[in-house]
Specification:
mainly beta; five-stranded antiparallel beta sheet; globular
């Protein structure tokens, strides 16, 4: 019984602690966490093109100006309208001076890369972690069902 009381007290203390690191200056934009600083991701709207049984999404430019050396990046998001649990991460291919991703209705469609999302504070601050190592290249975080993308490059 005493052990349960001690455990409960420790749990309350842990939940009462507040996040003390850097906070994103803008809501609804994921920021890359680099040590004690934040780097804003490139927020753009992907262009959608329907092709027979496929959907091609393109983003202007061959690569993102936002770069990270981290193979397993961490993001901070102060959510207002954006639902952090609905973000998905995709690898983009560079073709014809633009970044693109192809979704096929049949087999071989692009699949999201797994993310872990945890709430850091009561003011809707979220930590988003990539669950695997990323290869060098172009990537985008996107809310499920939206053409809004937040791009970055791993180098």
């Amino acid at each position: 019984m005493r052990l349960l009381a001690v455990f409960s007290l420790c749990a309350l203390v842990l939940f009462a602690q507040k996040y003390a690191g850097p906070r994103p200056p803008k809501p609804d934009v994921p920021f890359l966490l680099h040590a004690d600083s934040l780097v804003e991701t490139e927020a753009v709207e992907a262009q959608e093109q329907q092709k027979k049984d496929d959907i091609l999404y393109t983003v202007a430019g061959p690569n993102s100006p936002v770069r990270t050396p981290l193979a397993s990046p961490i993001f901070l998001l102060r959510a207002d309208k954006l639902d952090a649990s609905r973000l998905q991460l995709y690898k983009l291919e560079t073709r014809n001076n633009q970044r693109e991703i192809l979704f096929r209705k049949k087999k071989g469609s692009a699949r999201p890369i797994r993310l872990s999302v945890s709430k850091l504070s009561s003011d809707n601050l979220y930590r988003i972690e990539v669950d695997e190592s990323l290869e060098n290249g172009e990537y985008s975080l996107t809310p499920e069902g939206s053409n809004q993308v937040f791009c970055f490059q791993v180098y």
